[in-house]
Amino acid sequence: MSDSVKLMDVAIWRGDATGGAYEHFEVPAQESQTILDVVSWIQQNQDANLTYRYACRVGMCGSCAMMVNGTPRWTCRTHVKKVLDGNKLTVAPLRNLPVIKDLATDMDPFFDKWVEAEGVHHPSKTRDDAIELIDPKSSARVEANTGIECINCSICYAACDTVAGNTDYLGPAALQRSWTLYNDARDADKQGILDAVSGTGGCHNCHSQGSCAVHCPNDLNPMKAIAGLKRATAMSFLKNGR
C-alpha cells in the first residue's frame, strides 16, 4: 500500500434476499490492516447496522468469508495491501448462497448438499466393539487425509461456476467430503456414497475448471477428489450396473 493513500473508498453491499446495492464508505488506511478490520471499522464507526459474520479472526473457523474485489476470501487473513485496487475495495456476500442481510449469507444450502452427498460417517461398528486400528500409511488413508482440513468455509462453493449455473450441483466441498469418507476404512456404506454422488447434480457435473483448488485457503484440491469419485462411480457402474 502506498504511503500516499490516506483514505480508502470501500464499497459494501447492503441489502437482503429481496435485493440491495453497494454503499460507499471512506475508511482510514492503516498498517497490517485486514479486510475484516475494514468491515469492523465501518460497523463500529460509521454504520452500526452493518451485518456480517466472523468468529475466530485467525483463519480457523472460516465464518468471515466474503467476496473481496470479486474473489471469495477469508477476510480475517486477507491483508488490504494485497488486494487494494488504487484506493478502492469492494466487499460483498459470498456468491452462490442466499443473502440474509448485507454480508451475511445463509449457509443452509451449502450444508444441505453435504447431506445429499452422504457426507456423513456411516459407522461400521458400535461403541461396544473394539476400536478398529487404521494404518496411517495405507493408500486409502493417505487419500482420505487429503481433504480432512476442510473447515466448511464455503470459499470453494462461492468460487465454483458450475454451482452458479446449476443449483442441483452438490459442489466441491460436499463431494470432497464424500471422497474422504469413501476412502475411510471405517465407513460402512461406500456404495451409498457412490450412488449419492453419481446422480443429478453429482460429481459428473464438474467441468474441472479448478476454481475450487485455486481459491481454497487451506490449499486443498477438491477437483482431485471429484476426479476420484468420477473414476469410482464409473467402475461401480461397469461392475454392478449401478
At a glance:
35% of the residues lie in helices and 16% in strands.
N→C terminal distance: 56 Å
What count of domains describes the coordinates?
2
Number of DSSP helices? 10
CATH level 1 class label of the largest domain: Mainly Alpha
The dominant shape is elongated
- Helix/strand-derived class? alpha+beta
Strand order, biggest sheet? 2-1-5-3-4
- What is the CATH topology classification name of the largest domain? Fumarate Reductase Iron-sulfur Protein, Chain B, domain 2
Helix content: 25-40%
SSE layout and pairings?
Blueprint: E1 7-16, E2 19-28, H1 35-45, E3 65-68, E4 71-74, H2 80-83, E5 88-92, E6 99-101, E7 104-105, H3 108-116, H4 139-145, H5 155-159, H6 161-165, H7 172-182, H8 190-197, H9 211-215, H10 222-240
Parallel strand pairs: 1-5
Antiparallel strand pairs: 1-2, 3-4, 3-5, 6-7
Helix pairs in contact: 3-7, 7-8, 7-10, 8-10
Structure description:
This protein has two domains: 7-105, Beta-grasp domain (Ubiquitin-like (UB roll), Roll); 108-240, Fumarate Reductase Iron-sulfur Protein, Chain B, domain 2 (Orthogonal Bundle), CATH 1.10.1060.10. The longest helix is centred in the last third of the chain and has 19 residues, at 222-240. Helix 3 (108-116) runs parallel beside helix 7 and helix 7 packs across helix 10 (222-240). The protein has helices at 35-45, 80-83, 108-116, 139-145, 155-159, 161-165, 172-182, 190-197, 211-215, 222-240, and strands at residues 7-16, 19-28, 65-68, 71-74, 88-92, 99-101, 104-105. The mean pLDDT is 94. A five-stranded mixed sheet has the order 2-1-5-3-4. By secondary structure, it is α+β, with helices and mostly antiparallel strands. It is elongated, with a radius of gyration of 21 Å. The chain contains ten helices and seven strands.
